Amino acid sequence: MMTDLKDLSREAKKLAVVFEATGAEVVELNFLQISNVLLDLYGEDIRGRAFITNDPIYGEMMLRPDFTIPIVEQHMANSVSPARYTYCGKVFRRQEEFPDRPREFLQVGYEIFDGANPEKADAEVFSLVNEALNGFPVRIATGDIGILMAAVRSLSTTETRKKALLRHIWRPDRFRTLLNQFSGLSSKAQSIQDFEDYNKLLDKFQAIGSRKVQEIRERLQQIKFESETEPIDPEEVKILDELLSLKHRCPVALNHLEKLSKKMPGIDLTVDNFAKRLTFLEKNKIKVDLLDFEGSYGRTSMEYYDGFVFGFYSEIHTELAPVATGGRYDALTERMGRGKKIPAVGAVLRPDLTLLLRGNNND
Length: 363
Known about the structure:
The structure is a single chain. With 363 residues, the protein is α+β, with helices and mostly antiparallel strands. The protein is globular and about 65 Å long. It is 46% helix and 19% strand. The strands form 3 sheets. The chain has a 9-stranded mixed sheet with strand order 1-5-6-14-13-12-7-11-10. The chain has a 3-stranded antiparallel sheet with strand order 2-4-3. It has a two-stranded antiparallel ribbon with strand order 8-9. Strand 8 and strand 9 (211-212) form a beta hairpin. It has a domain at 186-230. It has helices at 5-20, 35-42, 68-78, 118-132, 145-153, 159-167, 172-182, 192-202, 213-228, 234-245, 250-263, 268-283, 330-336, 351-362, and strands at residues 25-26, 32-34, 52-55, 59-63, 83-92, 104-113, 138-144, 207-208, 211-212, 247-249, 292-294, 308-314, 324-328, 344-349. It is built from 14 helices and 14 strands.
């Protein structure tokens, strides 16, 4: 069913009022964005979901797939001072996997750049989204990728392995494959004799394809070193598995995480931050006893989230995309800040979906 554009515009304004009331700066951004920045941050996966064209001066351009990265780019280029932004505008996504979903749709969003009290800012963003969606039949999911990242950094293994696992946190299947490999649950790739044979073979060649012999030799040396490294401690793998499988109400999840932190002290700080966030949420009248927490939540979302994550989903139309999503993306500001950084958190809402749910409520 086609949505009336006037109705959609009115719906977007209803949602935006909640964020504009905070005094946040209202921003507008260009539809076309230089794609190399977005590809660098999202990865090549975004190419299959984006509308791309070529400009004779600027080169490859992309219809904006979201607002967050352009806002971060703009903010970090001009200031690292605390700021709040809100916006309302169209984003564009190809929908080859979900042909019934719209190719262009409105987003209403809110972003906070402020490092004074990150947990308080997390609670503010979540609470404002919850206020905007008050009365809608939605299911809420929350998580914290920062806890999982801290657990990986705490592993008693090589930095190379930890970097590989961190790089694939947002790709659960690849993450599991690597974890199994590093923990000795899958067979080792090659024997030592194999590496010696490969090196002798390389002596007969100057180059193979576009790669230099020295590059291949260095890669073989890395693989050899990996094959000789002791597996990750099974107890540490067990803690990771417990964290990834954790699903419960937030207070119960916190209690479980505090117990896990006694076995893996490296997650202490992130678990403490989780506790602080719940306190601020309670002060904002959020019923945390009814709020779900999932240890794996957010891992298939866009890769710039690295802390608190949340999503609001229709209870009626379970096949729909999330009505609202959000999270913390501190590392993104550092990557785009050329040496500057400031903690940041934000959220986006879909007016087309809230309009659909509002219509259901009126039936």
